[in-house]
Amino acid sequence: MKGRRPRRRILSAHLPTSISGSATFLGWRRKVPRRRPPPPDRTGAPSPLIFHLASGAAILEKGVALAPLAGDDRFPWAPSLLDRGRAIGPLDQVSVAHEAARRLGDFVRGVEAWQTHPHARRLADPPALWQSGASRLLDFGGRGPAVVAIPSLINRAYVLDLSAETSLVRHLAGRGLRVFLVDWGVPGPAEAGFDLTAWHDLRLAPMLAAARAAAGPVALLGYCMGGALAAAAAQIAPESLRGLALIGTPWSFEGGPGMGPTLRGMAREYGAQRLTDELMAMDKAFGAVPSDLLQLLFALLDPGLALAKFRRFGRFDPGSPRARRFVELEDWLNDPVPLPGPAAVEILVDWQIRNLTGAGAWWLSGTRIDPARIRLPALAFCSRTDRIAPQASTLPLARAIPGARLREPHSGHVGMIVGSRARREVWDPLREFLADPPDGDQYRQR
Domain coordinates of the chain in residue numbers? Predict the structure, then answer.
């Protein structure tokens, strides 16, 4: 919506991770015995297990020294964090506390500069070709072969249409393609209880049918976990599809970096079923798994990132283009969506912990999804510097699809979409592929 600006609240993940970054610059650490948090209460409300584990085990045990802040009235939350059993004793050097306070002060000033910045996203959404519940298929027009872009369910779709200068979908629509964008929306009553099969059957499949009716055979462009849904759709119903492009699509979660190690560590201590129960308890209490939990898991990939980027932003000229670009992206990052419990269980437990996708054991819409059975020309972008979907996770999907072409950009996960090298490393080769994929007959005959 034109002029819409998300409420600029600091996410719950930013504060503890910023404490982490400000208090670990000496590399000091001390092991602390783990404590098991209490089970869910009898009312069915979620216990603080996941939040407690994530903020405690994965952040504070990385070396956070909170004790020096506990007596400072500028940090009233420090004692409560210490009481969680993850606190670490006082340091000998008082200067550590002073430096931590200085860095936190810079961080707070940067956050305030972002929160008060006047810029807002100005792009108006195009008409919707199809709509049901919270979801829409946006029609960006253009002339030429049709493309349906499928983003992640976890973040807002407008990262692909962030600004006039950084809109991938408008770029493609202006250069010889008819472009549609799947906007999943914010799940509401119509999406209550959705698992991934429901998202496919009741939202994505009808959207693809509407796009084909309007523009003929379509190519699928999947970004992040939207790429997993695109790959599944390419196997389930390849009729009238003409190609598959994937950008930063995680698939195998067996090893390597990413959020998988954190979740698997939780599963080893508490059990995958316990985590499943916790997620479903959240769904029951709140109507969905809160977005703050999902964002916290992303924050744990780089606990010092929020501290560093907001300290840096505090030094920007507020009227500069780089300040505007920072605000645009940060507004999107801080505008996440919740997930229905069953879908959250599939993504966080079945994918990240049990690795059903990478093991060839993920079922969607009654079909076991096996990328080796995809019979479409395919192109995959697997970044060398992606922290959210590292190559250990993305390359197995690219290599499993017969004949898939591979490109390895040096831009990060979001950088492949809006970064300074995005046009050269991703947009241009993507447009060439989508406009004229290799002849699909050789793939269908295999």
Answer: 14-116+256-333, 128-253+360-444
pLDDT at residue 330, rounded to an integer? 93
* Percentage, residues of the chain above pLDDT 90: 61
Mean pLDDT, residues 384-400: 95
Q: Among 98, 440, 399, which residue's Cα sits nearest to residue 242?
A: 440
Q: H or E stretch including 219?
A: strand 218-223
Give the integer Cα–Cα distance in Å for 89 and 50.
24
44 backbone φψ class: left, alpha, beta (φ>0; ψ -120 to 50): left
Q: In terms of C-beta density within 10 A (0-12 exposed, 13-18 middle, 19 or more buried), how is residue 225 classed? A: buried
**CA geometry: angle 426, 355, 261, nearest 5 deg:** 80
Q: What is the CATH number of domain 128-253+360-444?
A: 3.40.50.1820
End-to-end CA distance of the chain: 45
Contact at 8 Å (CB) between 136 and 128?
Answer: yes
Taking only the tens place, the pLDDT of each residue in 13-34 is 455 444 444 443 333 333 333 3
Residue that has been written with the tokens 């050097």 in this structure:
93
* Residue found under tokens 């898939």: 404
Task: Render 173-189 in DSSP notation, one character per residue.
Answer: HTTT-EEEEEE-----G
Burial 53-90 (b: 16+ CB within 10 A, else e): bbbbbbbbbbbbbbbbbbeeeebeebeebbeeebbbee
Say which DSSP state 170 is in: H
Tokens of 259: 């959020």
pTM, two decimal places: 0.81
Q: What is the mean pLDDT of the chain?
A: 81
